[in-house]
Amino acid sequence: PAYAENERGGTADDWRRRGAELGQIADDFAAAGLVLGYHNHFWEFDVADDGRTAIESFFDGAAGSALKWQADIAWIA
């Protein structure tokens, strides 16, 4: 999945909420035997209001869930 352009920014709390929401969806998928992964893009490496990257806050929100990270090395580089 990817967020629409108007949903890509926000605070660290916004990103944690997004991670928690997708983490719950991943848990629902896992119960059905499916795996859900989040594929990163360049905007998740923007620094949020807490000094951390959005991707860090996103996966903090998803902590403990079945959500996997589909790392895109080109975007990371």
Care to describe what's here?
By secondary structure, the protein is mainly α. It has three helices and two strands. Strands 1-2 form a two-stranded parallel ribbon. β1 (37-39), α2 (54-61) and β2 (68-70) form a beta-alpha-beta unit. α1 (12-31) crosses α2 (54-61). The chain starts with 11 loop residues before the first helix and ends with a helix. 27% of the residues are buried.
- The poorly predicted ranges are none
Shape label: globular
What does the oligomeric state look like here? single chain
Radius of gyration: 12 Å
Give the number of DSSP strands.
2
Structural class: mainly alpha
Strand content: 5-15%
Along the chain, the helix and strand elements come as HEHEH
Furnish the topology, listing elements before pairings:
Elements (H helix, E strand, L loop, with lengths): L11 H20 L5 E3 L14 H8 L6 E3 L2 H4 L1
Parallel strand pairs: 1-2
Summarize the structure.
This protein has 77 residues and is mainly α. The chain has three helices and two strands.
Features:
77 residues; two-stranded parallel ribbon; mainly alpha; 3 helices; globular
